[in-house]
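FAQ

Q: What does a record look like?
A: Structure on top, sequence underneath. For example:
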């Protein structure tokens, strides 16, 4: 027993030293043994009744284990232990500096968020330095954002193709972001200023990210009218640059595309069969959240024919819900149809009138653009991991409900996949799709990001009327070996880290 105890202490110190972390406080147990859990290790393998030992910030042993002298024992009481979930497309960094407990995430078992999405990430050296000084309860990784870099170079003169000299300046900024630890390049090609970039510009910048060992993740140029062409653009980047490419929040976002999930999966599979390292993430809702202007890819807000097309094909008046509108805060929670009735104007005219007002195109909306059966079918694609695309405020329930919704109703009632497959889509697959190392599995040497939950009880409680209602069924969450959530409460411990891509 003394030999085993010494081995645990030596191994814990070695692993801590390898991670550059300080040793545990004096008097703290050298390790924690989690006993009595059904362990789903994240690989997709069947659950096992085994023990898991944590020492410092790492998992050091998995199997039938004997408690060591002075070791902390955590009784799992037959609940399921899984790797901490990784949200590969998250906006939960908004407000994280003042709400470091990240309750929307940890209450669902999420231990790592990936930000810098939709082309929005820049100054990662500054972000990561702040997280080193003031960590949150969760780990944070980030992409470098094409839109933010383009904005830095082109300023207000962005509604045009960039010159060769401007692209070169963008490449220089991107190199700095990659050196700071960015996972790769993200684009938001339906948004300003990225919507005005040429495919050649995006290809050139993605090549820089790929040369640094990064990947390319894209909110593609169109999720509705020109969806297939937009998908081809992403696939071409993967093929020509020979780099991993990732479809952010994959969707068939237009009524005319509904029912074509199998066709889409066929396109994705053929690209992979041809050697393109193509993956995707997806959230389990038929509603998306963005701004009002995104409904108009040509930004022709006064075009009546275009407006009529939008309201007949992209999102119906009853399916567009206002989330925020600076000029009309009383519209929050109301549909476009309801606002039109209040104003006494037809929906087409109402939408054009609103867009003509100051800030109208940036008004926040939630809109139904997808068919639920398509979302479910796409989520079953073996290379699609779960993401939230969520945040900790707003009307969309995905920020508080995504992961519990999949583990609960989607597994238990809909039986879309096994619990083990659902966990894989949230852990090891998510880590692989984002390029995050040593997380996403319960295995010796991996970081001790873990979630203990009740598979019979876990469920989302957030809906469009109560978007910040917490999920239920998660008992305990560990991040880097420390407990950040237990018995429905944040612990006030902040062991999360910035996850920098290793720079060679």
């Amino acid at each position: 027993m003394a030999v085993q105890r010494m081995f645990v202490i030596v191994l814990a110190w070695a692993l801590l030293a390898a991670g550059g972390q300080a040793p545990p406080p004096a008097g703290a147990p050298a390790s924690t043994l989690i006993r009595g859990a059904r362990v789903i290790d994240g690989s997709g393998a069947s659950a096992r009744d085994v023990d898991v030992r944590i020492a410092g910030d790492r998992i050091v042993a998995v199997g039938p284990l004997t408690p060591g002298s002075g070791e902390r024992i955590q009784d799992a009481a037959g609940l399921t232990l899984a790797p901490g979930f990784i949200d590969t497309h998250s906006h939960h960094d908004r407000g994280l500096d003042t709400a470091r407990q990240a309750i929307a995430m940890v209450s669902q078992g999420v231990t790592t968020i990936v930000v810098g999405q939709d082309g929005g990430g820049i100054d990662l050296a500054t972000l990561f330095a702040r997280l080193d000084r003031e960590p949150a309860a969760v780990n944070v990784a980030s992409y470098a954002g094409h839109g933010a870099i383009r904005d830095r170079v082109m300023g207000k003169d962005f509604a045009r193709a960039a010159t060769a000299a401007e692209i070169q300046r963008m490449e220089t900024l991107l190199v700095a972001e990659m050196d700071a630890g960015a996972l790769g390049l993200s684009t938001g090609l339906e948004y300003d200023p990225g919507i005005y970039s040429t495919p050649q510009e995006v290809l050139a910048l993605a090549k820089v990210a790929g040369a640094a060992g990064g990947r390319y993740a894209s909110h593609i140029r169109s999720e509705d009218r020109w969806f297939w062409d937009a998908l081809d653009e992403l696939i071409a980047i993967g093929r020509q640059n020979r780099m991993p490419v990732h479809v952010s929040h994959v969707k068939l976002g237009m009524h005319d595309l509904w029912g074509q999930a199998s066709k889409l999966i066929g396109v994705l599979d053929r690209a992979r069969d041809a050697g393109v390292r193509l993956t995707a993430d997806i959230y389990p809702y038929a509603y998306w959240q963005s701004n009002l202007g995104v409904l108009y890819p040509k930004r022709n807000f006064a075009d009546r024919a275009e407006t009529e097309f939008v309201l007949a094909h992209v999102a119906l008046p009853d399916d567009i819900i206002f989330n925020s509108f600076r000029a009309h805060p009383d519209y929050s929670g109301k549909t476009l149809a309801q606002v039109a009735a209040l104003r006494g104007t037809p929906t087409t005219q109402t939408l054009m009138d609103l867009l003509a007002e100051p800030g109208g195109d940036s008004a926040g909306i939630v809109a139904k653009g997808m068919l639920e059966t398509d979302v479910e079918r796409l989520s079953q694609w073996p290379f699609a991991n779960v993401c939230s695309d969520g945040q900790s405020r707003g009307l969309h329930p995905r920020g508080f409900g995504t992961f519990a919704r999949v583990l609960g109703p989607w597994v238990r009632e809909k039986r879309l996949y096994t619990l083990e497959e659902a966990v894989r889509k949230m852990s090891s697959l998510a880590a692989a799709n984002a390029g995050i190392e040593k997380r996403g599995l319960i295995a010796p040497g991996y970081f001790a990001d873990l979630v203990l939950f009740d598979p019979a009880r876990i469920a989302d409680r957030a809906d469009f009327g109560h978007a910040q209602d917490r999920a239920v069924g998660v008992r305990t969450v560990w991040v880097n070996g420390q407990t950040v959530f237990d018995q429905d409460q944040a612990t006030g411990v902040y062991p999360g880290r910035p996850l920098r891509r290793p720079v060679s």
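Q: Is there anything notable about this one?
A: The CA atoms of residues 38 and 80 lie 5 Å apart.
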